[in-house]
Specification:
CATH architecture: 3-Layer(aba) Sandwich
Largest sheet: 7 strands, mixed
Distance between the termini: 32 Å
Number of helices: 12
Strand order of the largest sheet: 3-5-4-6-7-8-9
Number of domains: 1
Shape: globular
CATH superfamily: Alpha/Beta hydrolase fold, catalytic domain
Radius of gyration: 17 Å
Strand content: 15-25%
CATH topology: Rossmann fold
């Protein structure tokens, strides 16, 4: 645990070697990465792996000093901003590294982009798994406002039950239905954090101009069945001047790293070996 800006943050550091910081999706705890961890060590060797529970997720506190008023559609919602999450990660990781590979899934990718904007000197390379640089569309903003309303109405459990279905791809739900309760059990978030993180996602900036500044190696992996970060969205990382390796896993959804850990690991492991050699 580490105290920072009004909250105790939960994180885990494992093994030794070149550092990798794993930043997972909301509403999951750091256990989202479990299917990839031991195989990663077996396939590509030792790395110092750093995992962080975002504020209000897993074992991390949300804190009480979040700003209010940033999300115009829900002006009284507290905002857990991407910049706050990035500051948290930098604080936690700063004692563990001089520079690292940052791996982000979904909101974890947005946080990695913010870290690049503010502290590029600590970024050795960036991997985006089912994440994108574009800001929310009007449809996205309306959906987030609806989620906030339902969370405030006491429907958090039902919301998470639905997310366990929609975040997984159709193939995973059909062929491996046991993944639905598995991912649901990894959703460890308070109702207050669910509200705040949706407002933070809604207010994040368009990061396409940021992509045009990334001069370190980039890996971008999309799920062919992902309805949130579509392959055409993820492919936009190819604009990074440092070079981007782009892949699509056809039968994976928004949680490709959990649905298809072996396939993601083959791609990630080969890329990782090249950028850390």
């Amino acid at each position: 645990m580490r105290e920072f800006e009004g909250a105790r943050l939960n994180y885990l550091v494992g093994w030794h070697g070149p550092p990798i910081v794993f930043l997972g999706p909301t509403p999951f705890d750091m256990g989202f990465w479990t299917p990839m961890i031991l195989p990663l060590r077996e396939k590509v060797g030792d790395y110092r792996q750093i995992f962080v529970d975002m504020r209000g997720h897993g074992g991390s506190e949300l804190g009480t000093n979040l700003p209010v008023g940033g999300f115009a559609r829900v002006p009284d919602a507290p905002v857990l901003s991407i910049s706050q999450l990035a500051r948290d990660v930098i604080e936690v990781a700063s004692t563990q590294l001089q520079s690292a590979v940052f791996v982000g899934c979904s909101i974890g990718g947005y946080v990695a982009l913010e870290i690049w904007r503010t502290r590029p000197e600590i970024v050795k390379a960036l991997a985006f798994i089912c994440s994108k640089a574009q800001a929310d569309s009007e449809t996205d903003l309306a959906r987030r406002a609806g989620i906030i309303a339902r969370a405030r109405a006491g429907e958090t459990s039902m919301l998470l039950d639905g997310m366990a279905q929609t975040l997984l791809g159709a193939t995973a739900r059909e062929q491996r239905p046991h993944l639905v309760p598995e991912v649901r059990n990894r959703m460890v978030i308070t109702p207050e954090a669910l509200v705040a993180v949706q407002a933070g996602l809604a207010t994040r900036q368009d990061s396409m101009p940021t992509v045009a500044t990334i001069d370190v190696p980039v890996l971008a992996i999309a799920g062919g069945e992902d309805l949130s970060a579509k392959p055409t969205d993820v492919e936009a990382f190819k604009a990074a001047p440092g070079g981007c390796e782009f892949h699509v896993i056809p039968d994976a959804g928004h949680l490709a790293a959990y649905e298809k850990p072996e396939e993601v690991l083959v791609i990630f492991g080969e890329w990782l070996g090249r950028v850390t050699s």
